[in-house]
Specification:
Helix content is about 40%, strand content about 15%. It is of the alpha/beta class. It has a single domain, classed as Alpha-Beta Barrel (TIM Barrel). A hairpin with a 4-residue loop joins strand 5 and strand 6. Helix 6 crosses helix 7 and helix 12 crosses helix 13. It has an eight-stranded parallel β-barrel, surrounded by seven helices. It has a two-stranded antiparallel ribbon with strand order 5-6. The chain binds flavin mononucleotide. Belongs to the NtaA/SnaA/DszA monooxygenase family. Keywords: Flavoprotein, FMN, Monooxygenase, Oxidoreductase. InterPro entries: Diverse_substr_monoxygenases, Luciferase-like_dom, Luciferase-like_sf, NTA_MOA. This is LLM class flavin-dependent oxidoreductase.
C-alpha cells in the first residue's frame, strides 16, 4: 500500500572532513581522506544506505581572507563539487547528487551544460544549489575589484536561473529520434534557440545537451534574506537554511511558502530543509561529553576570527567577557545577510558575551547543534517537522566517517519506525524522492499560448 503519511526529506551535507570546525583534529576523523575518492564514496554509499534524498556538496571558489587562521588552523580546502559528484554518480544508483555553483562567479551556459550532463550520467539525480556567494574576497579571483552588491547579486542570480532553465528546456522531451534506418538523429523543430538578451547575459542557445531524465535538474537555493526568499519563492524547489529555534524556523517556513502564490506556485513545489548538526551518544551525558571534546579542540583564535568574519567586525578589539558590541543593521551588510542576522539575534536574545557567542556558533557555523541520544535527536527532528518548521533537514555530521554512520545506524531506524521516513526508495530520480513534479517546458507553454 502506498505510504500516505507526510515524510521527512533528508540531505547529507558534506563539508570537508566534518561540519564541526575542529573535526579535522578529532581522533576518530579520517582527515587524510579529504582528497581521496574513497572517502566520498563511503559517505555517498552510507547516505544511500540510509535512504537519504540526496548528498550535498557546498562550494566557495576562494579561501577566506585571513590565511593566518583559516589555513593554519582550519581545513578550508575542497575538491570541486561537480568533479566529485560525477565520480559519485558511478558508485551510487539512487541517491540525489546536489552541488553548489555560484551565480556571481560563473556563466549560465557552463552551469546548464554541466548539470544537464550530470543529470544524464546519473540517470536523473542532479541538483544545482544556486548561491550568490557571500564571501567578498571571491571577487578578486575573478578579475573584479569589488563583490557585487547584495541586491545586484540577486538580480544577476534571477536572470542566471532564467537562462539556465531556458537552456534546459531548449530541447523538447521527444526531440531525439536516433533513427538509424532513416538517418534522423533529432527533430530540429523541437530544438530551440533561446535568444536571451538581458542585463547580465546574452545567450543564444540551444544547449548542447538534450533534455535530461528529470526534465530539469532540481533547483536548490540557500540564501534566506528577504531578497533571497523572493528569489527562492519564484524559482527554487529546495531551500537550505539555518535556524536556532523552532519559532524562527516556523516564521521562515510561513514567510517563504507564503510568497510562492505571487509567482503562481503551490507550497508543495518547494521543500525547506534547515541544517542540523547531530552529536550522538548512547546516553545524553556521553553526547554532551563528545560535544565538549570537539569544542576543546577549537583554538580560541579560530572561533573569534570566524565570528568576526560573519559579523564583519574585528571582535579581538573587544573584551572577550564583555557584551557583543552594537552592530549595524543587516541592510548595511554586503555579505550573507541571513547568517549575520541569525548571529545578531542569538547574541541579543540570550544576552551572550563574545566568548559565549563564539562557543555557541563555531562548531556548526550558526546551524542548530543537537547533542543527545538517538531518540532525543529523532524527537527534535520530528518536533520541527510536525510543527510546521520544515519539510526535512540537511544532516551535517560533525566528523567523518563516524558521524554519518551513527546517524544512519541509530537515528534513521527510529524515524522509520515512527513512519516519518522511507524504508525504501520508491522512485529512481531525485525529483521522485522529493515528490516534485517536472516544471512545464517553457517552449511548449509558449507554443500552447500562441495557439490558444
Ligand atoms: C545549508 C546551506 C548551504 C550553503 N551553501 C553555500 C555554498 O555552498 N556556497 C556559498 O557561497 N554559500 C552557501 N550558503 C550561504 C548562502 O546561500 C549564500 O552565501 C548567500 O550569499 C547568502 O544569502 P543571504 O544574504 O540571502 O542569506 C549556504 C547556506 C546554507 C544554509
Amino acid at each position: 500500500m502506498a505510504h500516505t503519511q507526510r515524510q521527512l526529506h533528508l540531505g547529507a551535507f558534506v563539508y570537508g572532513v566534518g561540519h564541526h570546525i575542529a573535526a579535522w583534529r578529532y581522533p576518530e576523523t579520517n582527515t587524510q581522506g579529504l582528497f581521496t575518492f574513497d572517502f566520498y564514496k563511503r559517505f555517498a554509499q552510507t547516505a544511500e544506505r540510509g535512504k537519504f534524498d540526496m548528498i550535498f556538496i557546498e562550494d566557495i571558489p576562494a579561501l577566506p581572507e585571513h590565511l593566518e587562521t583559516s589555513v593554519q588552523y582550519t581545513v578550508p580546502v575542497r575538491a570541486e563539487p561537480l568533479t566529485l559528484l560525477s565520480g559519485l554518480a558511478s558508485v551510487t544508483s539512487r541517491i540525489g547528487l546536489a552541488g553548489t555553483v555560484s551565480t556571481t562567479y560563473s556563466e549560465p551556459y557552463h552551469v546548464a551544460r554541466k548539470f544537464a550532463s550530470l543529470d544524464h550520467l546519473s540517470r536523473g539525480r542532479a541538483a544545482w544549489n544556486a548561491v550568490t556567494t557571500s564571501m567578498e574576497i571571491t571577487s578578486q579571483n575573478f578579475g573584479q575589484d569589488h563583490h557585487l552588491d547584495h541586491s545586484v547579486r540577486y538580480e544577476r542570480a534571477e536572470e542566471f536561473v532564467e537562462v539556465v532553465t531556458s537552456l534546459w528546456d531548449s530541447w523538447e522531451e521527444d526531440a531525439l529520434h536516433i533513427d538509424k534506418a532513416s538517418g534522423l538523429f533529432a527533430d530540429a523543430d523541437k530544438v530551440h534557440a533561446i535568444d536571451h538578451r538581458g542585463r547580465f547575459f546574452n545567450v543564444k542557445g540551444p544547449l548542447s545537451v538534450p533534455r535530461t531524465p528529470q526534465g530539469r535538474p532540481v533547483l536548490v537555493q540557500a540564501g534566506s534574506s528577504d531578497t533571497g526568499q523572493n528569489f527562492a519563492a519564484k524559482t527554487a524547489e529546495v531551500v537550505f537554511t539555518a535556524w536556532q529555534t523552532l519559532e524562527e524556523a516556523q516564521a521562515f517556513y510561513d514567510s517563504l511558502k507564503g510568497r510562492m502564490e505571487r509567482y503562481g506556485r503551490s507550497r508543495d513545489q518547494l521543500k525547506i530543509l534547515p541544517g542540523v548538526l547531530p552529536v550522538i551518544g548512547s546516553r545524553e551525558r556521553e553526547a554532551k561529553e563528545k560535544e565538549a571534546q570537539l569544542q576543546e579542540l577549537v583554538l580560541p583564535e579560530v572561533g573569534l576570527s570566524m565570528v568576526s568574519r560573519t559579523l564583519r567586525i574585528d571582535l579581538s578589539a573587544y573584551p572577550l567577557d564583555g557584551p557583543v558590541p552594537d552592530l549595524p543593521d543587516a541592510a548595511e551588510i554586503n555579505g550573507g545577510k541571513s547568517r549575520y542576522q541569525l548571529l545578531v539575534d542569538m547574541a541579543r536574545r540570550e544576552q551572550l558575551t563574545i566568548r559565549q557567542l563564539v562557543a555557541r556558533v563555531t562548531g556548526a557555523r550558526g546551524h542548530k547543534t543537537i547533542s543527545g541520544t538517538p531518540e532525543q535527536i529523532a524527537g527534535h527532528l520530528e518536533s520541527w517537522f510536525v510543527n510546521g518548521g520544515c519539510d526535512g533537514f540537511n544532516i551535517m555530521p560533525p566528523y567523518l566517517p563516524g558521524g554519518l554512520d551513527e546517524f544512519v545506524e541509530q537515528v534513521i531506524p527510529i524515524l522509520q519506525a515512527r513512519g516519518l521516513y522511507r524504508t525504501e526508495y520508491s522512485g529512481t530520480t531525485l525529483r521522485e524522492h522529493l515528490g516534485l513534479s517536472v516544471p512545464d517546458n517553457k517552449f511548449l507553454l509558449k507554443a500552447r499560448h500562441q495557439h490558444a
